[in-house]
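yo

u said u wanted the structure for the complex thing, so here. seqs first:
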Amino acid sequence: MKRKPVILAAAVLTVLFSGLSVYGYWTDKVEAKCDLSFAVPVHVQIRGEEALIIDMDKAEEAIPLSPVPEEDIEGIIPDGEEDSGTGSDLNLENGTGENTGAETGKDGQADKSGEPANDGTAAGGGETARDGGANGSEESNQTAGSGESGQADDGAEGGRTDGGAEGGQTDGGE
Amino acid sequence: MIKKKWSRGTLLFTVIFVSLAATGITYARWSGGLNVGLGFSTGAMDLRYSYDFPCCVGLVDEEGNELVKKQEADAVILDQGKTMELTAVLPFQTAEFLKNPDSLIKLEFPIEAGADGTVNRVELSKPDFRQEPPETLVMKPVGMALLGEDGQEEYGIPNEAAKSFGDPLEFGVFRETSEQNGTATGVIYLRMKEESRAVVASFPSKIEIEEPGADNSDFSGQLMITYSFSVPIYVEQGHDDVAILEEGVKQ
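structre next:
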């Protein structure tokens, strides 16, 4: 009597495995690996130069710009190189002028930017100019090239300039 | 002595076991006799993907009407016909799934008999779309491409935007074995689940790309999301008058 459940279980298992075995022969399967694509309509907005433009007013708040004493500039730029180094058409007096960009740098000329101008003209980096690097930005009427963050090699060496913090357009030396 | 070694229960078990074995052997012989005598078989099934007919992908409704005309898919058959890698050439527009909640992706796989099988008749079956799908399939995104208005130019997708489209989609699976072109075809229907339809509906409609140096521009594009999944296709022996083609036999 004790063995009755065991026999029953054995019988059930036998039938089960037999059934599965027969089903294995009865059916067959193949495998499909699929790649399906779905197209989602989207509106694409590419923001290029706009991302580099900063607000003039905000820039002034963030980075205080101070006029560069002229004697400082004279002290830094060696005699004899002044002519070649100041080949820029920037006007020191009012900080205006047309940007000479890369060509200026290549020629080994240094642009001296003047004081920051709020009149919509170039606001080149004062310290950059003091180092003799080419400076200025094509976007100068919109951007504020920061003198403090702008870096420039010696303009006479074909100065590589990143003319101003946001004046990224002005890799004039290269 | 004998009574100690062979209890009544053991004896009973042995008798039943031997009887079952004898029954099985007898049945096997009887079954074999049928095979010979009537050509009626419970033999082995061996299926292969057919090299002779194309695999197709389309979008249909529950009545079988085409919502998107079916297209021939690129298919690579591997593993001696047991595995197929299928790539749909044209994408499905997600708007179709939102517009037609009952739309079904239809995948057709022509099947033929392999060399190792003894059966070449299959059981035809129809899906019942009124029932809840018995299986669920998860599609995972494996690639994305942002195409411009012309459908050619490709743009990089910002990571943040890509994440918004990275959720897997779930589909209910219905199966069908039908007869087409005189041969058997395994058909898989995929119905997008309600939750996944909500995911698709929540996809961002705008992608913003910051690309220093590029010109500012706005245009209507398409984000192509490729989903990958694997699904088995089962076919049973049957008595219907549909014979799957034997391997290598062409119409």
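The first strand of chain B starts at residue 47 and ends at 49. Chain B touches chain A through 81 residues (CB under 8 Å).
cya
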